[in-house]
Amino acid sequence: MKKLLYQFDTDALPSVFDNVVAYDGGADHVSAYGGVTAGNVSALVEGAIFTRSPKDKKNTALFIGGGNLLQGEAVLAAIRAKFFAKFRVSVMFDCNGANTTAAAAVAWLSKGRTLAGKRAVVLAGSGPVGQRAAVLLAREGAQVALTGRKRAGVDAACAGINARFGIAVEGIEASSNTDRAAAIAGAQIVLATGASGVTLLEAGQWQNSPSLELIADANASPPAGIDGVGLSDRGTIAHGKTLFGALGFGALKLALHRACIARLFEQNDLVLDADEIYAIAKGMVAA
Nearest-CA neighbor of 78 among 123, 36, 106? Predict the structure, then answer.
């Protein structure tokens, strides 16, 4: 029986990236739908849960993508509300690659060390990847703050994290590199999750820091999000700090995404969200 994956994107055009990785993860066929919302997903879910017999339902799975984290979470909630008894299929949530990217970064940051009690600052952290990274860093026991250019966006991100995960994250308005340099004062961990083409910290703003220990940059397009961090850095030691670049943990992100797709077809009642995907990532870096 063929393994069928239904890709539900909140964006008008479904992600080609997610489509390719779905096939690489073991799906035999991927059907991608754009413009999916909490209001129109019900009929699609019914088609997935009412067709195959209980023993065969594991061969049907759902993937939620798109660039809007809040809309994606609403779609996930609507999907789960349609499930009952044995009428359910496995689901993976990874809007904008938020879960897999954040999980890969934090898994490497925490490999072989404890983050408990350390101060972690997620630069440009009000976006999907930054929000999920903040959650995972807090799960590791770090005291987490996230920065953003505008106070309203920062406050909304922190409120969303608290409402969804019950985690209190500090929000810092930081519209300039100088502001961000001030925000990381006394921190041990910095993770940049900003948009491509924007340098959030200059090299001199972190290289001489007496407190910083771990630095990661999720920006894969030049210029670097954190100046002086190499794309392929994976545990590189420089200026007394351990550095991770986007490609350095990007290999794990891709392997993790594929591994999660494969797991969807092992059972029909799996939900892969932030915590579940992070657990898989930690197992992969420990192997």
Answer: 36
**DSSP-derived 3-state class of residue 83:** coil
All structural domains of the chain, each given as residue ranges with its CATH number in brackets, are: 4-93 (3.40.50.10280), 98-249 (3.40.50.720)
- 108, 232 contact by CB (below 8 A): no
Predicted pLDDT at 219:
93
d(CA 226, CA 199): 6
**Number of neighbouring beta carbons within 10 Å of residue 145:** 23
* Lateral strand order in the sheet of 143-148: 170-173, 143-148, 119-123, 189-192, 214-217, 241-244, 234-238
Sequential DSSP letters for 165-234: H----EEEE--SHHHHHHHTTT-SEEEE---TT---B-GGGTTT-SS--EEEE---SSSPSBTT--TT-E
Residues whose CB falls within 8 Å of the CB of residue 192, separated by 6 or more in sequence, listed in order? 122, 123, 124, 200, 201, 216, 217, 218, 219, 225, 226
Look at residue 143 and tell me whether its pLDDT is greater than 90. yes
What are the angstrom distances between the C-alpha of 259 and each of 99, 219, 232, 284? 13, 23, 22, 10
pLDDT band for position 268 (cuts 50, 70, 90): very high
Enter the pTM of the model. 0.96
Determine contact, residues 148/124, Cβ cutoff 8 Å: yes
Cβ(60)–Cβ(30) under 8 Å?
no
